[in-house]
Amino acid sequence: MKVTTTMEPTETVAPEVTRSSPRKAALVIAVLAVLVAAPMVLGAYPVTTMTRMLAFAVLVLSVDLLTGVAGLPTLGQAAYFGVGAYTAVLIGLHVTSDAMVQVVAGLAAGLIAAAATGWVAVRARGIVFLMLTLAIGESVHQVADTWSAVGGSNGLAGMPPISLFGAPLLASGFVYWWVLAVAVVLFAGVALVVRSPYGRTLRGVRDNEARMRALGYRPALARYGVFCLAGAVAGAGGALWVAQARFVSPGDLGFEVAALALLSVVMGGAGSLWGPCLGAAIVLLVRDNLSASIDGHGPLVLGLLFAAVVFIMPRGLAGAGKGRRKERPS
């Protein structure tokens, strides 16, 4: 009887997976089609707002990679987001307006900054790791706020419009399509990493570090690798952010940005990748758009929304229906 009981879930789950795969593919195609078509039916302001949402979602994706996949809640990713943003603006001001060069430079800058600071942070876990990343973020923010070479508290402005293959992208729709394309590539890359053997190693370290160490794995090295990868993704997100804004200031890498990114992950569902991206869109929509129409009470709305999601959907938006399915009798 035990053998029969053990095999029953396998027999019932397999058809569900088969049936759900085409549905997921169709849903992904539909979402991408809607996103691609958005500039054709929306005005300049909504398209600009969606561009900012996509860039912020890339930052949130890097936070989810650490928090949801590796089990390392962080408040420091805004630092690498800011490093990528400042690098892209400096490249745009003094080197070239080529969008590809700026994204690659932002990604590389985020990777280097994460590699330089992560080797200390990954040796800790839990609240200690959280506080170390917060210290890293605040340190980078202080440097940006006081260093005259990057504009100090005034930031850097006057970045020319980005260009592709020599043609400047002046229309907001063209900038949106560029940011969307890079965001999709980054999302696909992170998804491949999460589903790879390395991703399984990260989840194993997250769930049972002692067992993984006994099997011969090196948890600190695995965490350091994902920390560097998350820094690179955040740096690319910073480059995408300034591709639309054409301006960067210390506020773009402050504590508020880091906290909102972590809030987006919790609301969307840590570890699901797409859920935190949806949470990022909601958070930015409330902060930048809804807040103005409710007398600046956007943070209050975000707090209430966060409390509601935590109590009603503990697994976040991405896990809203999973609990009910598991409660159904087999």
TrEMBL record:
InterPro entries reported in the protein's UniProt record: ABC_transp_permease (IPR001851), LivM-like (IPR043428)
Annotated compartments: Cell membrane
Principal location class: membrane
Lineage: superkingdom: Bacteria
Membrane topology: Multi-pass membrane protein
Keywords: Cell membrane, Membrane, Transmembrane, Transmembrane helix
GO MF annotation, one: branched-chain amino acid transmembrane transporter activity
GO CC annotation terms, alphabetical: plasma membrane
Coiled coil: none
TM region(s), chain numbering: 25-47, 54-72, 103-122, 174-194, 221-242, 262-286, 298-318
Record Pfam families: BPD_transp_2
PANTHER family hit by this protein: ABC TRANSPORTER ATP-BINDING PROTEIN (PTHR30482:SF17), HIGH-AFFINITY BRANCHED-CHAIN AMINO ACID TRANSPORT SYSTEM PERMEASE (PTHR30482)
Name of this protein: Amino acid/amide ABC transporter membrane protein 2 (HAAT family)
